[in-house]
Batch of 3 targets.
Target 1
Amino acid sequence: MNTLWERYNMKSTEPSRYTISPYLVFVLILTMQFGPEYITMSNKPIQLAGQDAWISVILCGISFHIVIWVMYRILDRNGTDLIHIHERFFGKWAGGALNLIFIAYFLLHACFQMRLFIEIIQVWLFPDLETWALALALLLLVYYIVAGGFRVIVGICMFSLLRYFALFTLIFTAEYFHFSNLSPVMDHSLHEIIKASKQFTFPYLGVETLLFCYTFIKTPKKSQKWTHLSNVVITVFYLMIVSVSLLLFKPEQLSTEMWEQLTKNKFVHFPFIERFEYIGAASQILWVIPVICFCLWASSRMVKLMFTVKQLTVLPILLMVVFAAVCLIQGRSRMDAIQTMLSEFGFYMIYGYIPFLYIVDVVRMKARRSI
Amino acid sequence: MKSVPPLWKELSESSDFVCYEHQTNAVSLFIGYFKSLTDPKVLHQHIMGPLSNEPDLSFDDLYRSIPVAEKEISWDWDFIHNKMLRGNVAIQYGHQSHHCILVNAADSKGRSVTIPEIEFTVEGPKEAFVESLDVNLNLIRKRVPFPEFRIKELKIGSISKARVAICYIEGVTNEQFLNTCIQRIEDVQFDQITDSTKLQQMIEDNSNSIFPQTIGTERPDYVAWAVSSGQVCVLKDGSPTAFFAPVSLGSFFITYEDYYLPWIIASILRLIRMFSVLFSVFATPLYVAVLTYHGQGISNVFLPTIVASRINVPFPPVVEVLIMELAIELLREAGARLPTKIGQTIGIVGGIVLGTAAVEAALTSNFLLIIVALSALASFATPIFRMSATIRILRFPFIFAAQLWGLLGIFICTLALVAHLLRLTSLGMPYLVPFYPLRASDLYDTVIRPPYSKFHHRFSFLRSPKPVRFDKKNANLKKDIDE
């Protein structure tokens, strides 16, 4: 039997030149959680919970800590990623079907992110831009990054951290704060606050990526603290964003805004830059590209493992699927429908499926011990 | 021709091959050599001298009596041929003998050591490599008088048969990098390798990349520093540039003079250089993006200046930029191809006269002229020539992207560039190290050049078996006030 120390230092099953150091998990999870959906994040919860929306942010953050802990229990015990765990738990066919669902989820997520970004560009920068043209350019970029492998994707995540400079521009809004917007505290019922929390699961989503890249972490068990840290940082950022939304807008005003976070860029003034919105909108690419890359990497990897084909041959096919889907999604209402679908799926995955997996795992362990 | 031994027949097809029979009392000796490769002084004094003075020598006596250190006996005819092609004189003892005495009488003509011209520095030594490998090795060896400093020699090229020397310090250089390097050089199948820059391109990890993955230098002091940091250095006979690997992107923006200047000055100069790279790549694309799409984006204070300066220019910004960029590239290219003195004249005529005339003729705006000239200057601040060429070329895709989608195009292009850099490796080492993968302990000598007390460890990404340069404790002796 291995000693506890050896098990803690368990090495990844992938060749070491493809793996990442545990601290990079912080960068990866931070980038995956903090997707472009943050630009519209504070609207719905504020409609539900008003000035108490910030409590919902914290509640949701705490619940994600628990989910992360549960995820690590499952992964650490099995020592492999969800793709293999599925087959181990539910057999080849049922496990494969579950994997297929996740492939669909990741592809849909990629489509959503890309369509959202193109929509932002069409609204803020180029109203006449053809959807397919930008989609094509972005997907070529995604192909080039994903073909470089997991480490390159994490490198892009690292580079995308530059985007947090854009968050500092929230300082410019400070002179318009209405602190009276925050009181009275705890004015809403617990039910409303929890309902608002449910709305926050969508922006918080992204920790599930860990289930698919677990084997690519050099010493996976050491990475747990970094994932938790990432979740803490995300909570702080989201608190900042939601509080600024609360301080700047009345809920009625906010209900007419679609992307309130981009509207905030209008407050930014530099001596020589008149309209920061352009930079703000274009820099959304730093939020979008890493997530799309990871989605395609994860889904193509799943296809590779399930059907034993080369990832490099699967990738172009999946990219074409995404391309076609992105071109077909037209109009705001479709986007809203997809967002609702994804957020429902994410909600049940985080609070239903992952705990369920944990229970299955525990039962399996108990059963095996009793034999 | 009858007297030529049969095995030398092939060589005597060439008119610079000399072969004659030297009759002694006992036997006739055949002496063969290439006139174009041998030093007549050695031949006459040290070979012909003993032969004529003592006519009755046996084979062994003859061998002993030649007063040259580099001599040997061989019966392998391929080896003998090769040696003769490197300036050795072969002496065959008798018509039927299979043994030859080979005496090194090579005469290499070449420049003497001069001042570095590409990487000139105000401070520091002023020796540069020349074409002779032996002189170059001497320049390095005298800077590394260290028993573990090894030189491994290989021959490459089926025609050039060039001598290539791989220098490293055993126990400091990582074996894996060394073996990769040696193996790649051994695998080179090319016929004529005339310069180390050719070899450089052949052994780099990604030869389709615009970025160089090895650093070529003409400074022996730089090579000595690289070797003692744990890098592998390669020299080729006939080439005045040595190159070393593995290297990361950051090291291309370091001039060796940084190490000769006080650290604060050197750091500030280095920061200016890094900024100049960014400026050089992004300045003109941003001009195109802003003036084509985001005119409202600039402040009211700033906009009138730009608009006023290009009010008479009939072209769209991108055409204007391309004209100016091409003009600058043309000037540079013409200046580089012409002899120095004419080149300077062309530079002045082109730079000043054409620039002013272009503005007056409303081909371009003053504002753009300044940006283009500055970014051209900025690209020359990069010390490694191949990298500065890369920087110059790099801005063109950005200009086109900016024309296509403005700021968004620049963002996409930047991401593609970052992805490319992330995918690159140098002898298998990630190109962006120590920034990605982040190695916090190795950040010391990248953006700034800290004082030497901070250099106590070799870069961990070079994975040296002996990572400690000196004891850290001795570096930080801090005393209290008035002690």
Target 2
Amino acid sequence: MSSAAGLGGGPPAGSPAAAARPGRRFAGVPYFLLLPGLLWLGVFFVVPMLFLLSQSLQTGTLETGYRLTFHFATYTDALSQFSRQFLRSFEYAFLATLLALLIGYPLAYAIALKAGRWKPVLLVMVVAPFFTSFLLRTLAWQTILNSDGLVMRFFRGTHLISLTSALGWTNGNQLLSSPLAVVTGLTYNFLPFMVLPLFASLDRLDPRLLEAAGDLYATPLTAFRRVTLPMSMPGVVAGTLLTFIPAAGDFINSQLLGNPKTAMIGQVIEGYFLRINDYPTAAALSFALMVTILVLVSVYVRRSGTEELV
Amino acid sequence: MRPRRGQDSSNTGPTGVASASGDLVLSSLTKRFGPFTAVDGLDLTIAQGSFFALLGPSGCGKTTTLRMIAGLEQPTVGEIRIGEHEITYDKPYRRPVNTVFQSYALFPHLSVRENVAFGLKRRRSDSVASQVAEVLELTELQGLADRKPAQLSGGQQQRVALARAIVNKPAVLLLDEPLGALDLKLRRQMQVELKRIQTEVGLTFVHVTHDQEEAMTMADTIAVMNAGRIEQLGAPAELYELPATTFAANFLGQSNLIRATVAQRQPDAATVALPDGGLVAVPSGRLPAGIAEVWVGVRPEKISVHEAADRADPAGHTAGRNRIPAAVVTDASFMGVSTQYLVRTPWQQELMVFEQNRGGATIFRPGDRVSLSFATEHTFALDAGQDAEAGIELDEALG
């Protein structure tokens, strides 16, 4: 963006001639600095990805070994067999992302703009769950949602449980082992990934812009809609991506908080890799999941138009 | 609901005698932050259509005053009215007031056009596009309408900030050090520009600045503010020629202040005794009544330097001019258009003298014995109860 600044009336700050001299001397430096990252990506991402792709097209068994036979049918078989888990994963991930956004935006807004000297403390509290393991945190939700817990008693007391059961969010007279519990777990576990980018973009917001909006006849609500929200879109996009992507591939929450009818695609992949040892099917599902996420994400980023921002 | 007036009535000029319907009136306006009083009982009437400057050093309360008019601060005591409407406690978005912020506060995610249209859209104004186009033309921004603020230079951003405010045709436009972020040359250029636009649109401009030259160039009326109060109010020339306080004398330009005692008061002029006992004349209208001890003041450019007379007489006055005969040049700087001297008087005070280089006149050197003279009508006197240094360091510190 800044490159276009020189097109205006004023002379650009650094003329090309002045910039060229130091640029030539250190021309190789940017590439040199990229090297560790590229190496890392190559060894730990590109190569495994190729292995995975190749694995998904092989046939054979663990005992007899696998051969690359370009057996594309694995994809169609796996996808038709697990289409339900596939769709469910995206549905749960979408719901969890939406909930995390609804909870995370006010939270990030309050921390960034209203917390004052409590800002650092509140930020630490957002990150604090990371001090324990993902698995433990999810297990904790079993205790929180179990039949003797406060939450359950509240749901029973207010008869909310009948409503959620009627909607199919819970099964019978319990909260655990239900879609509601899985989505709750996903929302909770990925909430910090939503809050932190949102906080970062809201914290950068110049409060004087809101004063200016008020001066230009915008009510506080309009100022939020026309200034705060658009200015925080990069945070919204980053936060929703950081929540949606891992949530779609998650295999812990459904396993610990759900039931067989809430199984997500991550669980299926895990089972095929580690228990059934059908590597091609597992690899095909992994690859399909990745490509689907990639397509969804690029459509989303394109449509939200965040490249225009900042 | 929003008081709007015709352009002709608002173009009545600085005095604004034609109508009082749109005057901005501040009554005993006070703002305290804890124990600190930022603005102290301000009473001010700003005529509709005038270009009014609040001039003062930083911390004098001028920005707080502006923010109270904009509704961004609530007064502790007092009232703000525009014509008949009291707006003291109105929300900022309900006031017929717009601000050009010091930081510009342009919306970075909106184009120039969208920035300028922001206020009109909020008020659901008709013909937004044509009004925006008109203002973009007035501020010479037509070609930049689709740029984002980050793609503009400082001067261009400044004009967008101005366009975004004046497009709403507010009853009062507030400008908070609007040229502070620009370099000197651009600042001078924008001063002329601002004045032109103000004349063209005929809105009331209230301009806050610490730059006395800026205030004098643009404003019809200047209020010199210090420590939350108005020291003096008047047209630029009036303030400059006859400062009412030592602060005004020093903050607006420079002044030589000489300690003196009133010797004799007469109907048209009084005589005062300088430290060496010599008597100089001060017009009665330029000498506050009822005081004996005064600072006698004269602006540096009003003093002429002559070759010294043979005899070392005390100061005196003849033929409408006050004279200080026995003085010594201690410093001389040639500035091109003028020569600036420091001249030591017999009572060991250094006076500042700016002598125009009209050619022909002698340029004196340090050590030369000289005599000084200045017209009686350029001499003024201030109550000696005030600090002679008030307003000096502040002005220098802020450049």
Target 3
Amino acid sequence: MTSIGTPSPSKPASSKPASPKLGGAGATWSLRRRLLGQLLLVFSGLAVLLYLSVQAVAGRAADATQDNILGASAIAIAEQVRVAEGEIIVDLPYAALEMLGLAGEDRVFYRIADGRGQVITGYGDLPGGTALPLSEEAPVFFTQQYRGDTVRTATARRSILTGSGRETVLITVAQTREAHGALTTSIALSAAAVGGGFLALAGLLAWIAIARALKPVQEIERAIAARASDDFSPLETAAPREILPLVDAINAFVERLRLTLDTSQQFIAEAAHRIRTPLAALKAQAEVSLKAGAGAASDESLRRMVRAADETSQLTTQLLTQAMVAYRAERAQRQSLSLAALARTAARDLEVAAEMRGIDFRMNLDDAARIEGDEIALLEAIRNLLDNAIKYGPPDDFVAVTVTAGPAPEICIADHGPGVPRRDRDLVFERFRRGSVGAETLGSGLGLSIVRQVMRAHRGRVRLEENVPQGLKARLVFPPARSRNPSREASS
Amino acid sequence: MRCAVLTALIALFALPQAAQAIEIEQIRNYPALQEGTPRSLLHVVGTTDADAMDGLVRAFRAQQPDVAIVYHQATSVDVYRAVTEAETADGEPYDLAISSAMDLQIKLVNDGHARLHRSAATARLPRWASWRERIFGFTREPAVIAYDSRAFAAAPPQSRFELLSLLRSEEGRFAGRIATYDPKVSGLGYLFATQDSLQSETYWRLMEVFGNLSARLSCCSGEMLDMLEAGQITVAYNVLGSYAQARRDAGAPIAIVYPEDYTLLMVRTALIPTTSDNPGDAGSFIDFLVSPEGQRVIAGEVSLAPALPEGDDGALIPVRLGPGLLVFLDGMKRRAFLSEWESAVTERR
């Protein structure tokens, strides 16, 4: 009685295949891994960014360092430019080239030439560049290829008075960039190492933080796994604000489950009671007939027995039908259906019963009316309404069946019977309730309750109206077709 | 140390170089120890005396018995030209250039004529002994002051200051009895003179006193030691320590002083020209030169001094292998230096 297909609480919930309703796509994944992965991805990106930016900065710093030394060297040489006996001479200072050898073991070239490009001393083929330094204090720097190597070059200018007038002297000093590259690489590698360290540390901290953040979820899991299958009390776990909706949703779901279960149990209890009554009557009738002796059984008592058996049979059928319809309405695949075709099929099914009472159906069906739903459940609902119309309508009459298309397709079944008084119109949908006029008619009190259940599952409505001047109009109104939203309110 | 004719060096930077043929002073052939055709032939050109190199070449050949070696002895300028012009006497390029002219060797490396050589043996060298992994020092030879020990009753002056004050106080005793390198003639003398001028101002004062005392100018350490041994001079300034040591070991009355203020160390270097067609064996020869085995052979050779192991004597200053050495190769700088030197020394006579 208590285990209604709920998972056994002894196993950990996570290892079980997810239920079709909750699991969705089915593939499981770890929130912790996904979070960690995304964080590490971001961190790696930052580490790469750090490496690149430090490399750029280090490159610029190394450039600046080399430029400073080259510039100092060129200016030191420029200061040694003199005029002796009308000629420009340069007393190359030892420090000017020696200082270039302090930072590394790079090749060094120099060239001193006058304004006309006449080489005074040095490497005659070393290009001095096209741009002239603006002042004597600020050499120009550029990078070029020379003797198979990339060289950083500084050109300084010195203006000097010779016998033939003012003369410009250009001092060019160049140095290869091996130490520069090595320095840049080593700085950038240090940055990369720091970045890598941060990455590892961040990963570790993120792992711990995620584990702590997910702890309430684990507690909820443990609390649910540990509870007995008939325990429907709300979860009392303390949860952070972000997890609270989950706890509330679980509690709400458990509450609905409890209500559904209660309803089912009530239904079963009442069904058992209802079936027991006609069966007891049948048994009593049979015993009376038996006591009266063989052959003494009157036609009257036999008719009563048949009536009691009919009643039991119909009740049982309808109970099973309701259970079936309730299941189908919730679970079955929706398909596109013609409301007119459904009406025709239902009418055909009840043709015999109608003929017995001399009733015929007047059908006014619009074939354009299409709805989405479960064929079997809907047929059952329409059949129940037709059955009621046949049963409660006067004999030798007609029942009008109308199907109209439009934004909200509907089917309307109208009889000329006693109708349902306005105050009873909600009541008749309750299980085992029958209208005040149906007392002497054979019926279980389940028909309209099935109709309502089917319509709720299809997000439609059932309405009972007065058929002027006499009778009842039962109207099934469907929501517009093509709306494929899963029916949430049907289950609530 | 042989004389380097420096007039050629001046020509080096002023005239088209191909005009003059490279002059080889001496050729030694070392056939492979193994029978049959040698695996390869190693062409070595160097300033080092062929006799001094003999032991080293033989020891290397013992390690590589299938290599034949040819040693060409030439002046430092000709070694420089042999590398830049990629020419040998027998028409094949040199595989190894050994020179005591550190400045010219540095210029060869700086101008891209030397080949990269990286090995476990060269990785162990101290910083001062290599540059750009293309030039490797394998001897370390001090510039010392040699005295005629017969002329000093007590210990001779131990530093340049002491020498200076002695010369000033007893001018008559030393007039015409001092000798040093003529930097115009000797490449090594020029290197020592320029490095001295960088070390201290005392050098110029010393040179002025040398000029006042009509110092004799010489091409080579050997010549100065000859004069010292013969009693013609009393003081020989900046002679190679290993040469002086060899003379003293042979019984000459020579006192050797490593100046206390500072003692310059000349580093003999080897490099592999980029034009070499046998860089593998050339690299092995360099590795051998700086290996403990090679250094032992050098230590046993009277006219060479091993580079390793290093002492930690603070007064010993190796001439630094680096771009600074290019400065005094500059023609204009050279003229300026020599003219200053001449005005200090020669013009006072």
